[in-house]
Amino acid sequence: MSFFYKPIDIDNLEYIRKELYESYPSYETGTKLFYPKEKLAYFLKVPAAVELFQCFKISKFLIPELGCSFVRINSKSKIPLHTDTKFRYSFNIPLVDCSGSILNFYSTEVPGTISKTPNGVSYTSYDTNNCNLELSTAITCPFVMDTKMIHGVTNDSAQDSILLLIRLSHAIDEVIEEYF
User: Fold this and answer.
1) Helix residue spans in the chain (DSSP H)
2) Around Cβ 9, how many Cβ atoms within 10 Å?
3) Which of 1, 64, 70, 115 has the largest count of CB atoms under 10 Å?
4) Residue 131 DSSP one-character state
5) Distance separating alpha carbons of residues 89 and 72, to the nearest angstrom
6) C-alpha dihedral sign at 175, 177, 179, 180
7) What's 28's DSSP letter?
8) Strands 161-168 and 68-73
9) 99-158: per-residue pLDDT in tens?
C-alpha cells in the first residue's frame, strides 16, 4: 500500500450527496457514529448508494454487519485520536460542506488503549501529547483512508459535518490501489 489518505473523484458527487443526505435520519444529533438498525440493507435502499458501490466495483468488499455508517461531528467539537480495530480501509464521503472539519493523521511509539463506542464497536484511543502530526487536511472531497493510521477530526466551523463511512473488508487490503 502506498497511501494512508487519498482524495477520490466521483463524477455524480452532488447527486450522491443529496440522496444520501436526504436518507440521514434527522433525529440523529450529537457528535457520534450512527449505524442504522438495518445495517447495510439500509444503504442498499438508497439508489445513489447502490450506484456508488457499483461505480467503484466495491460491492463484494462491503461488510454487512458494520460496513456503512454515518458520522456526525457537531460544530466546535471533535473526534479524538484513534485507530479502528475491525477495518483497515474506509471510503468516506462528506454529505454536506465539511471544509471546516480537519482530518489529522498521527504517528506514535506509545501504545494506545482499547475502548468501545456506546454501540459496542471497539477502537484504540491515543493521547495527543504522545503523538506526532503527519498530515492535516480539510475534508473537502470524498477520500479513502487507512484506519490503522492514528487519526482524529476537529470541526471548528459553525456547521455540523456529516459523512458517510463505507468500511471495506480485509479482502481489499492487498488490492486497494486497483479500486481507488
Assistant:
1) 13-23, 40-44, 47-55, 176-179
2) 7
3) 70
4) -
5) 19
6) positive
7) -
8) antiparallel
9) 999 999 999 999 999 998 877 778 999 999 999 999 999 999 999 999 999 999 999 999
Q: Which residues make beta-bridge pairs with 144?
A: 6, 91
What is the distance, to the nearest Å, from the Cα of residue 40 to the centroid of all Cα atoms in its chain?
Answer: 15
φ/ψ (deg, to 5) at 20 = -70, -35
165, 120 Cβ separation under 8 angstroms:
no
- Strands of the sheet with 122-125, listed across from one edge: 113-116, 122-125, 77-84, 150-155, 101-107, 132-138
pTM: 0.91
* Domains of the chain with bracketed CATH: 5-179 (2.60.120.10)
Nine cell digits for residue 168: 471495506
Under 8 Å between Cβ of 57 and 179: yes
Residue written as grid cell 447502490: 50
**Residue 2 pLDDT grade (very low, low, confident, very high; cuts 50, 70, 90):** low
User: CA-based angle 105:106:107, to the nearest 5?
Assistant: 140
